[in-house]
Amino acid sequence: MRWNVRSCSRWTLYVIVDRASAGPRALDELAAAAIRGGADALQLRDKAASARRLLDEARVLVALTRNARIPLIVNDRADVAAAAGADGVHLGQDDLPIPEARRLLGPGRLIGQSTHSLEQAVAAQAQGADYIGLGPIFPTPTKPEYGGIGTGLIGPVASRVRVPVVCIGGIERGTVEQVVEAGARRIAVVRAVCAATDPEAAARDLKAVLMRHREISSRTFHPSI
User: What pTM value is reported for the model?
Assistant: First the structure.
């Protein structure tokens, strides 16, 4: 197993710091709150930002995550991730292909890819993804073009891929138990933290659920999930 994959396997709570969901909050304040709440990885997502503004935002968050010793992943933009010194990039199905992103970032940085089916998950692994995002598990306004795929795909993906799987999409305090009971060991959240009244407390609550289930089920579920 590659070092990159091993590092991802330790994650439980992956928080996407999203400009569109943040409201009036500063992104660095949200990131700091998520870190205090126990986030194992952060992703910066600002789809409306220019490359220059995204680079500036990424550099601010890199300073926070370096101090906390957790990775910062930049959504979509491998070039910005490289320029900012971020730890990796997360790609959609229509973004730069994984091999091209790897050429830009080199072997030591993380590359994740969003997948919405078993076939896409298998393909992402074959192309060299260090982890995959699986979802949206439930319908979510951040991905209105996709309906929820449900929890039934978690098991089949677990049986076919070896890289860590991060379940995403509509996961919040009211649905997280359903997702982990289906076998998920890692989740990514956006609004559940970014739009929470108390982002730190929201992250801490989700992390507690994940850690409790990981302890109970660590010998039962597939290690990549």
Answer: 0.94
Q: Which of 7, 19, 45, 102 is catalytic?
A: 45
Report which of residues 45 and 139 the model is more confident about.
45
Give the number of other Cβ atoms within 10 Å of residue 205's Cβ. Answer: 19
Q: Is residue 81 part of a domain?
A: yes
pLDDT per position as a tens digit, 46-62: 999 999 999 999 999 99
Is the residue at 84 inside a domain? yes
Tokens of 210: 């994940």
Q: What CATH number is associated with residue 29?
A: 3.20.20.70
Task: Count the domains in the chain.
Answer: 1
- How many helices (H) and strands (E) the chain has is answered by 11, 8
CA distance 93 to 102: 15
Which residue range forms the structural domain that includes residue 211? 3-217
102 catalytic? Reply is no
Q: Which member of 7, 21, 77, 114 is catalytic?
A: 114
Number of CB atoms found within 10 A of residue 78's CB = 24
Residue 32 inside a domain? The answer is yes
| Structure-block tokens of residue 114 | 């969003």
**Tokens 């072997």, residue located:** 107
- For 219, residues 6+ apart whose C-beta sits below 8 A from its C-beta are none
Residue 224 domain-assigned (yes or no): no
143 is catalytic: yes
Dihedral angle sign, alpha carbons of residues 208, 205, 42, 62: negative
Point out the catalytic residue in the list 19, 77, 102, 143: 143
Concerning whether 173 is annotated as a catalytic residue, the answer is no
